[in-house]
Amino acid sequence: MDTNKFLNKMIIELNLGNLTEPISQVSGGLTHRMFKIFTDKGRYIVKLLNPNIMKRPTAMNNFNTADKFEEILKDNNINAVYSLKFNDKKMQEIEGQYFYVYEWFDGKSLKDDEITIEHCKKIGELLAKIHNIDLRKDDNKGKIRNIDFKYYIDLAKEKHSVIYDMIYNKLDILNQSINKGNESVDKLPSFCAICHNDMDSKNVMWLNDNYKLIDLECLGYSNPYLELYELALCWSGYEKCHIDFNKFSAFFESYIKNTTLDMNVDWESIYYANNGRIEWLEFNIKRSLMIECDTEEEQQIGINEVKETIEHIVYYDKVKDEILSNINKLILKQRNRDTIIMSSEPAIKVSQCHK
Fold it and tell me: What CATH number should be reported for the domain holding residue 38?
């Protein structure tokens, strides 16, 4: 597909105006491609959805569900960059290419070394507000994962792929992550809430102290404990394999102050259940091996992500005890604080009614 020709046709069909500067691609998208389009009618960013993902049988329903949740977040005044509607639809399609259009926001995502404790506090509070919109009991358990990594290791060796050296001796730790995660599914707290499901630092844009969420296409009901735990890790340095536990604690405590969830739960099970990176690894192994992938550019992204994801999995295993120790300290601190508050409240006198 001639991308520039397509985007010019899109501008005409959606009546976006006349270009005031050349169309340019925006970096940062690991799955879809994004383009900046400035016209005399407005400033936009266009997200071209990955055609290989759109071929999946569940893709369209997942996007339609996320579009509905977008409106719920908007109604609840959650700061986000929301997709624009054309002909009363969010998702658009021209010549088989699906895409979204958004208003441009002059912000930028933060790198790990730019994230402060204050940022962590704000996002912890934001996450609690999103979860509070529709927090409910739910007996549906987490996802069972069954991935044959030995098959991919053998295939990488057969194809002389550069990823073979990255994964060939990691089979034990990958299988352990899958097995321990599957064992923990039944032990998860029985709650669900609206979750962003991808709210790491790359998906929050900052302009000074103001921020907006982006990439809302993963919105859906998920376990709020898992999302809290995963994001506290991401915002405190996990992506660089160096967790700053001051930031981790700031995120967690800010969430605790703004939620009604009971934090006295089995966090070790949540530790093991937090293995979604296993699916991300499989997705990128496939891209690296040109499975469900048809461009060298996407293949290279897959190779880079395989390397990073393997590093994350190995690091995560090493810091298990330290993570759980910090969470337990935070929960104990909150419990003691609640006890002090309750003991300082004046006793309620019960008056006797006389006939």
Answer: 3.30.200.20
Q: What CA–CA distance (Å, rounded) separates 71 from 86?
A: 15
Q: What are phi and psi of 89, to 5 degrees?
A: -130, 145
**Domain C-terminal end among 80, 103, 126:** 103
330 located within any domain: yes
86 and 196 belong to one structural domain: no
**What's the CA gap between 239 and 47, in Å, rounded?**
24
DSSP single-letter state for residue 89? B
- Residue 353: the pLDDT is 39
Per-residue pLDDT of 13-59, as tens digits, reads 999 999 999 999 988 666 889 999 999 999 999 999 999 899 999 99
Q: At what angle do helices 171-184 and 149-158 cross, to 10 degrees?
A: 160
Residues 233 and 120 in one domain: yes
Domain that holds residue 164: 112-337
Predicted TM-score (pTM) of this structure: 0.84
